[in-house]
Structure formats: structure tokens, C-alpha cells
Amino acid sequence: MIGKEFGSRKDSAAFAGGQFGDEGKGRLVDERVNFYAQEREVFVCRNNGGANAGHTIELPDGQRIALHQLPSGVLTENATLVLGKGMVIHPGDLCEEIHQVEKLSGGPIKAEIWIDEKALLSLDTHRAYEEALKGFNGAGKGATGRGIAPAYADYYLRQPLQVRDLVTFDIEKLTQHYQFYERLFQALTGVGLSRFAVSTLGKEGKAPVGSLDEFLSHLSKQRDFLMPYSRNVIELLRERWQDKGIAFVFEQAQGIGLDPWYGVYPDVTASRTGFDAIFDSTEGVVDPSEIEFRAGVIKATYMSSVGVRRLPTMMEEGLAKRIREDANEYGATTHRPRDIAYLDLPAMRFFVKAGGFNCLVPTHLDIVYPDVPIRVCIEYRDRTGKKTYYSPDQASLDQIRPVYVEFDPWDKEVVRKAKTPAELPPEANDFLDFISEQLGLPIWMITTGPRRGQGIVFEGV
Ligand code: IMP
Fold first, then answer.
1. CA 353 to ligand 1 center in whole angstroms
2. In whole angstroms, what is the distance from residue 189 CA to residue 182 CA?
3. Which of 111, 255, 279, 393 is the most exposed place for a label (fewest CB within 10 A)?
4. How many whole angstroms from 333 Cα to the centroid of ligand 1?
């Protein structure tokens, strides 16, 4: 476990989701990258997940684009975007994402892109298999359908495809991979793999996997496009991490509540979502305990989740609906409406430890209603009334009874205009103090509204 101390490597910051993903990390990463980039080169590193992630960024002219595999900072000239070894890369979607950013910004991507040659490939075959499993026994029911778990499963089955297999275009390996999934898919569904349509980022949103020849021909085109970005990232990173003139921002995708070991199993993702994953993905070049700010990003007044988990603090639909509309709580990747729950401090106390956070960034502080007190679950009781603790297991969570406290709401318009903590309503400051004290971490920053620049950095952290 990583401690709570601030790391010694100046100009380095990392962001992870302190709840169930979609806490607003993308924008924070983007703003921090631009902050550092004013004076120096910045490396922006993603180390887990793949096309399951999604965050929307706004271009200077107001156009918006959802990023899935590229880290934030695509529009920043001084930035190098690193897609790390711990990620699963879908080459077709990545080509499309790069094209989309270039089309919208009217020219080549300003940032440099490095893809670790050892990152895993997640292909249409994985997406088809995920769908087949869902139909067969319901496994992965709430998943995003982006083939994430099967791609990581291939690693544990010791039959992974990596970016370097695409670059060298290892026909034997790629053919074997296709034939393996063709057999599995046929056996599970009774249907041929080639005509089965899977989710893709292209215009239609779905495309058939294709015959072996078609599959290889698509991959060959994607290889030509992506090859210039592929690198031995670990070697190159070693020098840069030692160079104190360069800033680093790490963006962990998803949230600790979706981690395979810490989340509500089995509706979890397949990659590690905490800061430990940075050590693994950089082969120890970056020891996460050296990172100065390791921020757990949380929604300040509620939590949201997309998937099939049953959270013990789920809200009644009336208030949930209001929040969903006001805070646009729809999945950026799948557009599904998100479930809305009250803050669950017993779970979040566990997530803070598991994630390796040393500070908090509460977002959405403006989501409050004058007529509705803010409810927070402070502890769990079992059926006999005895205090009990968070366990990442649905059967255990189904047994607990949340104990709530309530806080007075504040004026959201005052929050949206505030530029310093002193300008926040006293109720909001009291609430932030309470969360900070309960989770045992200082508050580094907050966001106070949906637009860029609506945020406050707390001094002295
Ligand atoms: P998978 O990552 O597609 O395997 O999905 C597993 C679970 O994680 C599902 O409940 C997804 O909805 C959820 N999930 C995966 N990525 C994200 C994300 O970026 N934000 C929110 N939920 C996610």
C-alpha cells in the first residue's frame, strides 16, 4: 500500500477516480496539463483500461469530443501522451479517435503520441467473445462491450497479443488468435464470427468482425497508421522521469469502485484502477509514492455509477432524475443513464486506502438544491444494529443498513462564481471540512461548475 505522504518528485500529479468512475477526471487532467505546459514539457501517462473509458473535452471554439483511449492533453503543444504498457489498445478505434480529433481541431494533433509496444491489443474478436459470453451465462452483463476483460484474460491465459505483434505484423500469431476466437464464438453461439457486428467508434457504431482475410487486412492498415507511434516507452520514460525540468501527469481510468479487487465484484472492470498500477505499467520506473499529488477525484455531494451493481446508498428516483439531468449523468462511452447514490463514506474510506491517495479533489460542488438536504452515509450497520464495514462483495452489501447524516444545502450560484475558498458559502466549506476529516485527506482542489476554469486550488496543501 502507498502511504499518504506527498511525493518528492516536484511537478508531478496523478488523478484517479475515488468512486465508480466518471468523477470528472478528464477535465482536471486537461487543466493540469495546460497549467504545467505553460512553462515546460509535460508527459501525460495512461496506464490502465482502454476504449471503455470516456471523457468529453471542449475545444477552444466550443466543439466537444469524447476521448476514450487518448489521455487528456491532445490539444496541448508541449505535451507527450503516453499510452502505457498496462493499457489494452483497440487499434481501429484509436485510429478513428485520432482522425476525429484532427478533423475537429483542423490539423494534426499538437501533442506527441507514444504507444508502449508491450501494451496489449484488444480486438473485435474480444468484443464478439464478450457479447457471446453475456448471451451464454450473463457474465459481464454491465460491461461496456469494448472487449476489455477478454483482452486482459488473454494476458493471464499467456496468449496475449501486444502492440509489437501488430507492428511486426506477426501473421501466424494474428491468424491463430482469430481462429481461436472463431471456434469459441461458434461453439458458444452457433453463429459464425465473421458476420457478427461489434461496437466500434466509426460512424455506424457497429461493424462485423469480418473473415480472417478481412480481419487481417483491416489490422494491416491500422498497423501502417499506428506504427510511427509505437515505442519502447519504459526506456524513454526512465530518462524523462529523472529530468526535473519535465512535468508529469498520470491519468488512471475508471475508479477504485470498479477495480477487480476493490470494487463490487463481479461488476468490475479488468484493470487496476489505483496508483499501484503506475508501478506495474512503467516496470517500476515511476514509483507512485514519489508523485507529489496523488488525487482521489470524487463527486462532492453524490456518487454515480453505470453498470449492474446495487449500491447500498442508491437514491430515490425523483432526486436521482434531477441530478442526472443537471449533471448530464449519462455514460460518455455507452450513453447509458447512470445510477445516482448518496455519498458512501464507509466505501470511500476503503477506496482512499486502496487507491493510494494523498489528497482529494471534490467535483460538482454546484449540484445542490435549496429544498433538499445533502445526505451522507457515515457508517454501515448490520441487521442486528452492529457497526460493520465495507466489503467489495454484493452479498455483504445487500445485508447492510446505511446510517445517514444530513447537511444544509448552499447557494449553487455563489459556488459557481467563487474564485477562492473564502468566497464559498460557509455551508459548503463546512461540508468540505467534514469530508476531508472523515476521509483523512486534505482537499487539493475543487470544481465549482461545468466550465473550464470553474475551480479553486486550495493553498497550503
Ligand atoms: P468493462 O470495463 O467494459 O469490462 O466494464 C466493467 C464495468 O465497469 C461496467 O460496470 C462498466 O459500466 C464500468 N466501466 C468501465 N469503464 C468505465 C468508465 O470509464 N466509467 C464508468 N464506468 C465504467
1. 21
2. 11
3. 393
4. 9
Q: Measured in angstroms, how far is the CA atom of residue 38 from the centroid of ligand 1?
A: 33
How much is the pTM?
0.96
Give the model's confidence band at 371: pLDDT under 50 very low, under 70 low, under 90 confident, else very high. Answer: very high
pLDDT at 55: 85
Give 383-392 pLDDT, tens digit per residue. Answer: 999 999 999 9
150 lines ligand 1 (CB under 6 A): no
The neighbouring-strand residues paired with 248 are 12, 43
Establish whether residue 16 lines the binding site of ligand 1, counting it when its CB lies within 6 angstroms of any ligand atom: no
Q: How far is the CA of 335 from the centre of ligand 1 (A)?
A: 12
Round to whole Å and give the CA distance between 240 and 286. Answer: 10
Is a pLDDT exceeding 90 seen at residue 460? no
Per-residue pLDDT for 134 more than 80? yes
**CB of 148 sitting under 6 A from ligand 1:** yes
Closest protein CA for atom 9 of ligand 1? 143
Residue of the CA atom closest to atom 12 of ligand 1: 307
Amino acid 247 reads A
Backbone angles phi, psi at 179, to 5 degrees: -65, -35
User: For this structure, is 22 an active site residue?
Assistant: yes
Q: What does the H/E/C string look like for 3-59?
A: CCCCCCEEEEEEEEECCCCCCCHHHHHHHHHHHHHCCCCEEEEECCECCCCCEEEEC
